[in-house]
Write a structure and sequence with these properties.
Helices cover 38% and strands 22% of the residues. The protein has 9 helices and 14 strands. Strands 4-1-5-14-6 form a 5-stranded mixed sheet, with helices on both faces. Strands 11-8-12 form a 3-stranded antiparallel sheet, covered by helices on one side. A two-stranded antiparallel ribbon has the order 2-3. The longest helix is centred in the first third of the chain and has 20 residues. The protein is globular, with a radius of gyration of 18 Å.
């Protein structure tokens, strides 16, 4: 039975992602591996309930809307390349396939030392995702109870640093697992089905998915609020984005987007 549940969860997750990915091309969306000409900025954007999501012909997402607004204000052509595995986007950034990677990337010391990170776009934090069965023996009520526990993350997630440091603070090991195939949404679905015991993802994504899967508990934060930034391939382009964001983040449109997506009340 556990094997059947696991297989079913993977099949459902695959069907769900295929449904999200199936669509017609439009002017700002392309799955082509070929870079566009002229000055078009190629943005690899993570598919998630917060950053980028598609339903039918409608596209939404906080980061998607911010980039569209910034590009519109400065007359910059943008092409989006949605992705699921984080490692795929980061490797593409290093190879020059993408100009910008938009993902759940907090501006930590490691990410700043590895990539050209923009100024903060907004703030967020990480949350533990687990089954909402408070009577279960392995239910975690606080960060301290993660000592000796297994936790799943998206591959190459900077959240791994936080869990390693937390384990050292607790004087015990937190066993971190990851897979190149899973996004934050996959991990939440696998947790909801009981296939994996728990995961750590960004809190905004966790709360949006918990609204559809009430068996999930996302009440335990795993970090303080952190600045969320974008990774940019070229330093000069990073500097341009910083200027554009400095301008946009002081507008009523920006405040409205944060309120709409639940980042600011």
């Amino acid at each position: 039975m556990p094997l059947l549940v696991g297989v079913l969860a993977l099949v459902l997750a695959a069907m769900w992602m295929l449904a999200r990915c199936s669509h017609q091309r439009d002017a700002v969306f392309a799955m082509s591996d070929h870079r566009p000409g002229n000055d078009t900025i190629v943005v690899a954007i993570e598919m998630s309930p917060l950053l980028y999501t598609r339903s039918g012909d409608s596209i939404a997402g906080l980061d998607y809307d911010i980039i569209r607004a910034v590009a519109r204000r400065h007359d910059v052509p943008v092409q989006f390349r949605p992705f699921v595995p984080l490692h795929f986007a980061l490797e593409g950034l290093e190879k020059g396939d993408f100009d910008v990677v938009v993902a759940a990337l907090p501006a930590t010391e490691r990410t700043r030392n590895t990539y050209n990170m923009t100024r903060p776009v907004y703030t967020g934090r990480q949350a533990l995702v687990q089954l909402a069965d408070t009577t279960a023996a392995d239910y975690v009520r606080s960060q301290e109870q993660l000592a000796g526990k297994d936790v799943w993350l998206v591959a190459k997630s900077p959240y791994a640093d936080r869990l390693v440091n937390l384990g050292q603070e607790l004087g015990d090991t937190i066993y971190v697992h990851s897979s190149d195939e899973y996004s934050a949404e996959h991990l939440c679905l696998l947790t909801a089905s009981g296939t994996i015991p728990r995961a750590v993802v960004d809190e905004a994504t966790a709360r949006r998915l918990a609204a559809d899967y009430p068996q999930l508990d996302v009440s335990v934060p795993v970090s303080f609020s952190q600045f969320q930034s974008w990774a940019v391939g070229r330093e000069a382009l990073r500097d341009s984005f910083n200027l554009w964001l400095d301008d946009f983040c002081h507008t009523a449109e920006y405040d409205s987007l944060l309120t709409r997506y639940g980042i600011r009340s």
